[in-house]
Each structure stands twice: as structure tokens, then as C-alpha cells.
Please model this.
Amino acid sequence: MESFLNVERMRLVGGNLALDFLNSRAGPPEGPPDDDALTGSPALIAWSAYAGALDQTEAAALRRTAERDPQAAGDAFARALRTRDHLDDLFRALAAGRDPSADALARLRDDEADALAHARLDREGAFAWTWREDRTLDRPVRQVVHAAVELLTTGTLDRIKGCGGCRFLFYDESKNRSRRWCSMDDCGTTEKIRRYVAARRTRTAR
Ligand SMILES: [Zn+2]
Model:
């Protein structure tokens, strides 16, 4: 599939790896997405490196693995897209103030069990889960799954929001929880222009 989105120019505005992963699709706030930056296994690996989940050496090694076994790469990519769909439902429910389904949470638990089975506890100040030893093509999505669980278990849930102008989700870290847009440069500006035009129309009508 062709995409007009460039995986290495995506706006990382989610404030969390899992939310940024969901933001790899673009479109209006409601209804189906209309573009997808993840066009295949190479795009997924490029996105992971861009989002900081892989360093350049790890990304290059993963690309070679994918080239050696396109079938396995395709399967891992399909799993990543399915996980993205599930996480999308789950976080979109939360952003709308609804509880995710029991099925969605059970699936996330299974995905997290798989992710942790391939992780290692490394000392980074405190100990943290890392996937440095995971050389498999599922590593990118495992890191995303773990970020999703961390957000659910340690985040403030009503800070998980959807942009008013597009389908992007983000974690609102503003002091008074007043963030409404994925980015002031995009949807925020569009809204400012819309209000300006509406105000001018009202003035002209008087
Ligand atoms: Zn937006």
C-alpha cells in the first residue's frame, strides 16, 4: 500500500511509545483512518528506530534479518498491525472515558507475558526491562506492548486524550490538563484559523 506519510517525519506527539505507535495512522477524529505510515516490515523497523526504540545498529541488524526471511518478516508485521488494532480500540475507549473490554485487557496481558519473556532486567539507575538481547522481528511490537502496559498501570488515565482535530492520541502532561490538540502547529493552528474566520464572519454580518 502506498502512503503519503513518511515514517521518519511522523510527529511524535503521543508522549508514550504505544500512543505514538497508534499515531502511525492518520485521519479524522472519528471513523476509519485514511492513511497509514506502516506500509510493511521495513517501515515498521524504520519507525521503531525513529521513535527511539531501536538504535541504528539494532535497526540495521533487524533489517538484515527481515531481508533473509521475508516470510517471517511479513508474519511479524501482520502481528504488529493486529496488535495496533487492539491497542487502538483499548486506548480510544479510555480517551472517550469508557472502560476497555475484558477481552482487550486479557489480550494485552498475553502480549505483555510474551514481551517480558523476551526481555531482560538491566540496571539503568533503577532496573528496567530492555529488549537489547531480543534479535527477533517481534521486538518492536513487544516494546510497544510494554509501553502500553506501563501507561495503563502507572499513568493517570484521564490524561489519555484524543486530539480534537485528528485521530491522534496523546498523554496530556500539561499542568491543568488543558491540552486539546496533538500539536499546536497542526490541529491547534487549524482550529485558531477556523475561529478567526468565524469571528470575522460574525463581524462582517453585523
Ligand atoms: Zn491533531
